Amino acid sequence: LRCCRYAVLYFFERCYESGGRLFERVFSQLVFSLFIFEAFTAATFFANSAWTQGTIMLVTLTIYLYEFHKHTVARFVDTIHVDLFSAVDMPPATVDPMMYIPPALRHGCAGWYPEVGKAWEAWNANVYTI
Fold first, then answer.
1. What is the pLDDT along the chain (130 residues), one digit of tens a residue?
2. How far is CA 63 from each of CA 40, 68, 70, rounded to the nearest angstrom?
3. How far apart are CA 116 and CA 76, in angstroms?
4. What is d(CA 31, CA 75) in angstroms, rounded to the nearest whole number?
5. Which of 77, 97, 98, 94 is nearest to 19 (CA)?
6. I want to staple 117 with a disulfide (CB 3.0 to 4.6 A). Which of 29, 42, 55, 127 is the partner?
7. Which of 42, 101, 113, 38 is nearest to 68 (CA)?
8. What is the per-residue burial (b if ≥16 Cβ within 10 Å, else e) of 44-83?
9. Could you tell me which residues come within 8 angstroms of residue 105 by beta carbon, excluding any fewer than 6 positions away?
10. Sign of the dihedral defined by the CA atoms of residues 8, 10, 12, 18, in that order
């Protein structure tokens, strides 16, 4: 019984814990599906005797997709990952409650200005909602 408990706690992987690798897996699968989409689109071009379009698409898009994947992996995936056991020992994060108040409503603010809701103007959305 003791060895089973040890195996459950320290050997088996929990289904809810990805170890910080969820983005890497989803992103790689998404880029792979884009490669498949590119191949099938090129095959459609070639089947319709559009040799120039298919060749240009295969040459340029494959290079851009590969470079995009390489850049994103280097920027976001190849970083330091902290496991949950180390995260438990870290001090708790504190966020100033004033960060949740809109800038125009904060104490000491210069006040309302005419361009305050410019980003939401065309969407018929309220600037501040409860």
1. 556 666 655 555 555 666 667 788 889 999 999 999 999 999 999 999 999 999 999 999 999 999 999 999 888 877 766 677 777 788 888 888 877 777 667 777 766 666 666 666 677 766 665 5
2. 17, 9, 11
3. 33
4. 16
5. 77
6. 127
7. 38
8. ebeeeeeeeebeebbeebeeebeeebeeeeeeebeeeeee
9. 128
10. positive
103-124: string of b/e by CB count within 10 Å (b at 16+)? Answer: eeeeeeeeeeeeeeeeeeeeee
Dist. CA 77–CA 27, nearest whole Å = 10
CA–CA distance, 19 with 14 (Å, rounded to integer): 10
Locus of tokens 């909602």: 129
Whole-model pTM: value is 0.53
The full length of the chain comes to: 130
